[in-house]
Design a protein that fits this description.
Layout (H helix, E strand, L loop, with lengths): L13 H26 L20 E4 L3 E3 L3 E7 L5 E10 L4 E5 L4 E2 L5 E7 L4 E13 L4 E3 L3 E6 L4
């Protein structure tokens, strides 16, 4: 049987198997690289994620006066979950009628009862008229705001 190839003779299977193995490895590496590029690498830990509004943080307005006088101290309070971070800002017109939005200087955690209270000295250069306060709270993952809560500024001593 010289020169005749038997159907039972063994063909070199090794090269075919190693080609498949190399192809499988190459595809696996390509999929991993694409996953890393698409999803980002390294993956973000929960502590580095920004707050979202996927779940609303509880916030209740307890006290915002309807009227305050120029030169007086205004106090306003909200209730949220104890430990949530609280911030506030006040918007008003200056005497020249330009709108000012003033972020109050302190950010703090709600007390054991969930209360956040701010005091704001109404500047003397404020124009009488409409004003607003905005109070915000956030926990480790979520954020909520009261939106603008209106109040009125009056001269009172004029």
């Amino acid at each position: 049987m010289d020169g005749v190839v038997s159907m039972y003779s063994r063909a070199p299977q090794r090269s075919l198997t190693s080609s498949h193995a190399r192809l499988g490895i190459a595809l696996t590496v390509a999929i991993l690289v694409l996953s890393m590029l698409t999803c980002g690498w390294p993956p973000k830990s929960p502590s580095r994620l920004k707050p979202t509004i996927s779940s609303i943080v509880a916030i209740e307005i307890i006290e915002v006066p309807n009227v305050v006088c120029v030169g007086d101290t205004m106090t306003f309070t909200i209730r949220t979950t104890p430990g949530n971070e609280c911030e506030a800002s006040v918007g008003y017109y200056e005497a020249g009628k330009s709108w000012i939005s003033q972020r109050l200087e302190r950010t703090f955690a709600a007390d054991n009862e969930g209360l956040c209270t701010w005091s704001w000295l109404v500047p003397t250069e404020v124009a009488s008229g409409e004003a607003e306060v905005r109070m915000e709270v956030e926990d480790e993952r979520n954020f909520n705001s009261t939106g603008p809560v209106p109040f009125e500024i009056r001269g009172c001593g004029e």
